[in-house]
Design a protein that fits this description.
The structure is a single chain. With about 230 residues, this protein is α/β, with parallel strands linked by helices. The protein has a single domain, classed as 3-Layer(aba) Sandwich (Rossmann fold), CATH 3.40.50. The chain is built from 7 helices and 10 strands. The strands form 2 sheets. It has a 6-stranded mixed β-sheet, sandwiched between helices. The protein has a 4-stranded antiparallel β-sheet with strand order 2-1-4-5, with helices on one face. A hairpin with a 2-residue loop joins strand 9 and strand 10. Helix 4 crosses helix 5. The chain is globular and about 50 Å long. It starts with 6 loop residues before the first strand and ends with a strand. The relative contact order is 0.20. The chain binds adenosine-5'-diphosphate (ADP) and magnesium ion. The site of magnesium ion (MG) has 3 residues, from helix 1.
């Protein structure tokens, strides 16, 4: 029996050109992730963790190498195909939440449905379920500015999971939170993991990394396992 990796990077590099100089940020990443893994990526600031996560989330492209998302080579896909793939597969939790300031909690979480063909009744049901899962149904009509940091992060998580993506990518999701709120957010991720999601989480916090089933470290654009 062969098991296909849901995420497969082969010899991936990423460089930027700045003032005529090429800066190598990812320097040859080979990384396979299997369904329902929970992976923590650690590493110093500037080592390339966010760049990697953006590539995995199809928010950025590789310079060299290949990225296969559940067997689909993402290079050369049309914008429409890529959008459809993202909708099915990727839930992205940004470190700074990336919520729309003028939209309510409900509207923020409903955002992915702007791009999906879900029936309005169905999308309403899913938004309410996602908000219930993060215990925020009492904040529906609030705007992000009137929420605490932990509440904002929970809205961001609800938005990331509302379309039940197969993969959840989270960039330092507890980086800005106090320890009690971090613990709450971690419980949320564990619950999503138990429900079958594949989770890849960037963190500086060893306690957070301990909840993962596999730990990796990014060092100067290269990724290695931590036993
Ligand atoms: N758009 C960009 N243009 C130029 N350099 C970038 C860009 N994005 C990231 N970098 C550089 O890539 C390196 C890695 O950044 P990043 O992936 O954000 O690291 P980390 O998330 O591990 O802190 C940094 O040196 C950063 O300055
Ligand atoms: Mg980063």
């Amino acid at each position: 029996m062969s098991v296909t990796a849901i995420v497969k990077l082969e010899n991936v590099t990423k460089s930027y050109s700045m003032e005529g100089q090429t800066v190598a940020v990812l320097r040859g990443i080979d990384f396979s992730v299997y369904q329902n893994e929970f992976i923590a990526i650690m590493g110093a600031s500037g080592s390339g963790k966010s760049t990697l996560l953006h590539i995995l989330g199809c928010l950025d492209t590789v310079t060299e190498g290949t990225y296969e998302l559940d067997g689909n080579n993402v290079r050369g896909l049309t914008d429409n195909k890529l959008a459809a793939l993202r909708l099915n597969y990727i839930g992205f939790v940004f470190q700074d939440f990336n919520l729309l300031p003028n939209a309510t909690v409900y509207e923020n979480v409903a955002l992915p449905f702007l791009y999906s063909r879900a029936h309005p009744d169905q999308s309403k049901k899913l938004v309410m379920e996602a908000l219930d899962a993060v215990a925020l149904t009492h904040r529906l009509r609030h705007r992000p500015s009137s929420l605490s940091g932990g509440e904002r992060q929970r809205v961001a998580i609800a938005r990331a999971v509302v379309c039940t993506p197969k993969i959840i990518l989270a960039d330092e999701p507890t980086g800005n939170l106090d320890s009690a709120t971090s613990a709450e957010i971690l419980t949320l991720f564990s619950r999503l993991h138990k429900k079958g999601a594949t989770i890849i989480l960037v963190t500086h916090d060893h306690k957070v990394a301990e909840t993962a089933s596999r730990k990796m470290i990014m060092e100067d654009g290269r990724l290695a396992g931590i036993p």
